[in-house]
Design brief:
With 174 residues, this protein is α+β, with helices and mostly antiparallel strands. The strands form 3 sheets. A 3-stranded mixed sheet has the order 1-3-2, with no helix packed on it. 31% of the residues lie in helices and 22% in strands. It has 4 helices and 8 strands. A hairpin with a 2-residue loop joins strand 2 and strand 3.
Length: 174
């Protein structure tokens, strides 16, 4: 395991005969894509797709990515904030790069993703920050760039939608 056990819920269409809705036996390594939710300080995952691992090299690669991210974050915490320069990360591939630039900050997020995440984290409202408020505060960024950053942050579990699909709160918020 790479994290503590977590409740995962997947809504299954019992009328769908496509075979996409397969039952995964317990203690099976899987890849899960979904939205991270938090309710009464308990995190859960609403899964869109659950895929059993066919090759354990995928698990090994994931562990290496986690170790790399931890080392990069630990390194950034030891530097003064003025010294946090952009660094390229050629070993991580193109997964998080949306074509904005090939340099990513030490925490693994692009500048746009960091700006969106910072605004969402700073929002004190219980329902979170509205997408329109994000656009107003990031008026120099295109709507597509903001949407791309929000989608990435949501898919990576940094933020989650609250009262509707246009309000977001950080998973790190207290």
């Amino acid at each position: 395991m790479t994290a503590a056990p977590m409740d995962v819920r997947q809504w299954v269409d019992t009328d769908d005969a496509s075979g996409e809705n397969t039952v995964v036996p317990p203690e099976t390594y899987v890849k899960v894509a979904g939205h991270l939710r938090s309710f009464q300080n308990k995190k859960s995952l609403v899964a869109f797709k659950i895929i059993p691992l066919e090759d354990m090299n995928e698990f090994t690669a994931h562990i290496l990515e986690v170790v790399n991210a931890h080392m990069m974050l630990s390194k950034s915490n030891n530097q003064p904030s003025a010294g946090r320069a952009l660094t390229s990360n050629p070993g991580m591939g193109e997964a998080g790069n949306f074509g904005a630039n090939s340099f990513i900050p030490v925490n693994g997020l692009t500048v746009a993703q960091n700006q969106v995440l910072s605004l969402i984290k700073a929002c004190p409202r219980p329902e979170g920050l509205n997408f329109n408020d994000l656009q107003a505060q990031l008026h120099y960024m295109s709507t597509a760039s903001i949407k791309q950053a929000v989608d990435f942050l949501s898919n990576e579990g940094h933020i989650y939608s609250t009262v509707d699909d246009d309000h977001f709160k950080s998973t790190d918020a207290e």
